Amino acid sequence: MSIATDPQQLVAFTFGAEEYALPIEQVQEIIRYTEPRSVAASQAAVRGVIALRGAIVPVHDVGQRLGLPPSKDEPTKIIMIDAGEGPVGIVVDDVTEVLTVDISKVDRPRAASPAVAGVVRVGQRLVVLLDAVALLRDDTQIDLDAAAEAAASSQVVEAETAAVLA
Known about the structure:
By secondary structure, the chain is of the alpha+beta class. It has three helices and ten strands, in the order βββββαβββββαα. The chain has helices at residues 62-65, 132-136, 144-165; strands spanning 7-15, 18-23, 27-32, 46-52, 55-61, 77-82, 87-92, 94-102, 116-122, 125-130. The strands form two sheets. Strands 8-1-2-10-9 form a five-stranded mixed β-sheet. Strands 3-6-7-5-4 form a five-stranded mixed β-sheet. β9 and β10 (125-130) form a beta hairpin. The radius of gyration is 18 Å and the shape is globular. 31% of the residues are buried.
């Protein structure tokens, strides 16, 4: 089943041995991996939060969200996406390229997760096209105010500890 008829640009990335992509319109930016600060969350896929230009942003593990086994590779990037309610980061192994595909050649497998918008063949590779909004839809929102307070109190404790040790 085809899902549209226009060329579309996709941001391709890897997780483990698999290749995935997001529509470029859903990607705000790509940043180097920074270890997220752990916060209590009801979803295991929420790795924590990071501070990005003064904002506290939740970070999700894309592999865990898709039900994949943990990657053996170290994550190198966080893709910042717009999931409808502000920026959200997803951890990926690496961002590989921006693809331009004929979207009419994207097929949606019948048994696919709602987060899978389709699969496209790029040369000999099969790239799984994800929908960022559907990918994060079931995750419980993190209380960003509580996360910001926890991060701030941690910085105060670290500053006080550094002052005592000096």
